[in-house]
Amino acid sequence: MLDAGCGKGQAHPRVSLNLDSDGNGAGIIVVGGSAAVDAAEVDPRVDKACWDKHSADAEQFGLAEAIADYNTRLKITIDEVWTAPAEG
Questions:
Q1: How far apart are CA 43 and CA 6, in angstroms?
Q2: pTM, whole model, 2 decimals?
Q3: Over the stretch 47-79, which tens digit does the pLDDT of each residue have?
C-alpha cells in the first residue's frame, strides 16, 4: 500500500490488480503498472464522483463514516496486462 505520509510509494511504485474473471479462480486477468499518489488527505465523501459511485454501498454496509479514512487517491499508469486462461 502506498503511504502518502511517509513516501513508501515512492520507493516501490509497482502495483498489480488481480481480477478473477469467472469467480472460481480461473481466467485471471492481471493489470500491472506504476502507482503514484494523486491526492492525499481527501475525504472521499467530498469527492462527488467517488461518493456518487460508492455512497450506496458504504451506507448499506455501515461504512459511510469509516470511508473517510480511505483518503489517499492513487493514479496507476498501466504498462502490463496478462491472463491465466480459464479452464474448459
A1: 19
A2: 0.61
A3: 898 899 999 999 999 999 999 999 998 999 999
Residue ranges of domains in the chain? 8-84
Alpha helices in the chain (DSSP H): 8-11, 48-60
**How far is residue 56's CA from residue 59's CA, in Å, rounded to a whole number?**
5
User: Rounded to an integer, what distance in angstroms lies between the CA atom of residue 77 and that of residue 13?
Assistant: 10
- Break the chain down into helix, strand, coil percent, rounded to 5: 25, 35, 40
The grid cell for 31 is 493489470
* Nearest CA-CA partner of 70 in 88, 54, 86, 56: 54
- Helix (H) or strand (E) holding 28, with range, is strand 28-39
Residues 19 and 28 sit within 8 Å (Cβ to Cβ):
yes
